[in-house]
Amino acid sequence: MSTVEREAAAIQSTAEQPAGGPAGPPAGSSSFHDSSTPTGQVGLAFKRAMVAVRKLRGRETQRVGQLSYAQYGLLHGLAGRSDCSARELAEHTDLSPATVAQMLEHLEAAGLITRTRSEQDRRVVLSALTEHGAAIVAERQARMEDRWNSALEEFSTEELTVAAKVLHRAADVFESLSQDDPDE
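Request: output the structure for the sequence above.
Response:
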């Protein structure tokens, strides 16, 4: 049984284990999409979370006059940092450099960031939050943190720690898929 399966099984057994013993089929007999197994439940929950994020990104880009999820991600990436290049922001937010450059133009026009040329390399343009941009990030982050904390308050510290490990392991799995040789 892999570590991910053990961690998922631990979450499931903690949540559903009756006094007489473990619940459900053995963790090793699971499939990524089989909701009757602990690892399948984790897989389906992960997929649901990813779909919800994609839907959020799609809806927010259609709200005229409001920051999109991606724009907020850029602003959040600048929060607490000194000047940052578009390349650094693209890596941090998992967006293409061209998309970041276009968004930075709009954010600068809205007065949320400033952009200046680097003194070390004039080809590089550095971005930083304005006071207005920092206030928007702080306000939106506070709203999100309230929702996040409220949604997770019923779970123990131990359960949240295991959940974080499971999510990190899931991320590792998907990152490794992008590195697989398609000819193998």
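Confidence is low (pLDDT under 50) at residues 1-30.
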